[in-house]
Design goal:
The structure is a single chain. The protein is of the alpha+beta class and 310 residues long. It has 6 helices and 17 strands. It is globular and about 60 Å long. Mean pLDDT is 92; it is low at 1-16 and 174-181.
């Protein structure tokens, strides 16, 4: 029996299936920023997103015509404090090692790289935007190559990245993206998306009450100060950590909201019902509001999750 079969039989035995559909994904993420011009330029010129829409108060950026990131000017809001919960990073996923190498070229030429890791399931670059918001640019290895623990959980690590190999993939086609050029590639590929969002939270148990018990994500690899949750067997759609000891809800600039996108209205209704049941049971701290395209859930740390259908 596979790990999927184990989960299926366990759900049947309990009489309920609380998992999100496998097609669930992360949609747009939104940030409150002080300097809209500088931050827009960073995500355009370094991350490689295209500006899809822009006015004096807001910019929408994306890839292949699909919106991925919304920047909202909010200069009057204070900067995020050292105690505030909020964003650890927004993770933009490219689909080839060659595209990751192109991103590495943009970062090296136009910004500064803060970290680079091999996570066994993925290869990742880390940097901060001009306002200190964390950014990850990564590519997944094929699922069949992901290592797993005995219980079927995807196993990850933080090993040094083969930076030279990633760079070479962009310039000589040694990755899986075909022959390239030494010229800097300005735009991320059209199939780039937001693969996951990683949060800094004040409580992992409060995080799980909303995102696992309420929204229906499955818990994956975990530690005493970190949780990864996902749908459909992915390594993680959301991460949460308490590494820096955040103690107060998000109040300053930084993350405004992000989207969880489900495939259909039935999945959305299941989430509504599950959130209602969790709220009735008592201990979880969150608020739910209706939106024209779905629902908005504000967690105990003041972070808004917008749930909508495709």
């Amino acid at each position: 029996m596979t790990d999927t079969d184990d989960r299926d039989s366990g759900a049947a035995a309990s009489g309920r299936d609380d998992r999100l559909p496998a097609e669930t994904r992360i949609g747009r993420a939104a940030l409150r920023v002080a300097d809209l011009d500088e931050t827009t330029a960073f995500y355009r010129d370094v991350v490689g997103l295209a500006v899809l829409d822009r006015d004096a108060e807001r910019a929408t950026l994306g890839a292949g015509g699909t919106p991925l990131l919304v920047l909202e000017r909010d200069a009057d809001r204070p900067a995020r404090s050292r105690t505030d919960a909020g964003l650890f990073h927004t993770a933009f996923r490219v689909r080839s090692r060659a595209a990751l190498g192109e991103a590495l070229g943009r970062v090296g030429e136009r910004w500064r790289l803060d970290g680079a890791s091999d996570h066994l399931v993925s290869e990742a670059l880390y940097l901060d935007d001009p306002e200190g918001n964390g950014v990850e640019i990564y590519r997944d290895r094929p699922r069949e190559e992901w290592p797993r623990a005995e219980d079927g959980t995807v196993r990850m690590a933080t090993d040094p990245l083969d930076v030279e190999g990633v760079a070479a993939a962009a310039t000589d086609g040694s990755g899986d993206g075909g022959a390239g050029s030494e010229a800097l590639v300005d735009r991320a590929p059209a199939d780039t998306d937001v693969g996951h969002v990683h949060l800094e939270v004040t409580s992992l148990s409060a995080f799980e009450a909303v995102y696992v018990d309420g929204l229906g994500f499955e818990t994956g690899m975990s530690g005493p100060d970190v949780r990864f949750v996902a749908a459909g067997g992915y390594h993680h759609h959301l991460g949460a950590n308490t590494w820096r000891g955040r103690t107060t809800p998000a109040a300053g600039r930084g993350i405004a909201w992000f989207e969880v996108v489900v495939p259909d209205a039935a999945a959305l209704e299941t989430i509504r019902a599950r959130l209602g049941a969790v709220a009735t049971e008592g201990d979880a701290e969150f608020a739910v509001a209706e939106r024209d395209d779905g629902i908005a859930v504000t967690d105990a740390d003041g972070i808004e999750i917008r749930v909508r259908t495709e």
